[in-house]
Amino acid sequence: MNTTDHTTSLLAAVNDLAPQVRALSDQIESQRRLPQARVDTMPNAGLFRMLIPHTLGGLEVDVTTLIRVIESIAALDGSVGWSTMIGATGGLTSGYLKPAAAQDIYGSDPNVITAGAIAPRGKAVPVENGYRITGRWPFIAKPPNS
What's the pTM? Predict the structure, then answer.
């Protein structure tokens, strides 16, 4: 499938999701989260596989397609657009992992959703049985009980 086909199919998927996204906008706003039922339907549309390589079953779209799709869904609901962007760009890490690890995470489940921040502001120092991590990651929430 070429880029034009991906753009067309992804924008069609966003169009198909539009009535449901609009119907849930008030709930999303009041609960400050996407309903799990909505999240569960988004992977089927390919929205979270846009930046995953073909070799891992991803769509490997160009940046223009990524932006157009995110812009399209964000026009329906900003929170859904933000969540799509985070989930889609999380797939970028697949290209930086060892092939076996990338396959385990991204190639084994077509509905996997990953997220994270690519802001290398920390440092990992090897210590016995692992690493000591220090730094600040301003867009990642503090884990509970820490």
Answer: 0.75
